[in-house]
Amino acid sequence: MKFPTERQYPKTIKVRNTHYKIKFVNQIGKDKLTVGLCTSDPPTITLRRRGNRQKVFETMCHELLHAIEFEHRAKVKHKLIYLFAKAITKIIPDNFV
């Protein structure tokens, strides 16, 4: 499986009953290191554009896990969010053609 290009990502993703807008930007705020951000108000997943599609996909998984946290009112240690995002990034291509 190839990782998606920016154009292949959906415009929104539904988590529980909330639609999160997915947007790509060149930079997130003033911080040049931040690669992704998830906010619940407004429900948005922001991804920084960069050349490596696998890393963008991993960032999307990471931010999606934060959206799941918000919508299920769960608190997950950030270390686990990183671990789960890395695992999902490996599992999906290993099991989908």
Your description of this structure?
This protein is of the alpha+beta class. The chain has helices at 53-72, 78-95; strands spanning 12-15, 18-25, 36-40, 43-48. Strands 1-2-4-3 form a four-stranded mixed β-sheet, with helices on one face. The N and C termini lie close together (5 Å).
Figure out the total of helices: 2
Helix content: 25-40%
Largest sheet, if any? Answer: 4 strands, mixed
**Uncertain segments of ≥5 residues (pLDDT<50)?**
none
Beta content comes to: 15-25%
**H and E string:** EEEEHH
Describe this structure in a few short sentences:
The chain is α+β, with helices and mostly antiparallel strands and 97 residues long. It is built from 2 helices and 4 strands.
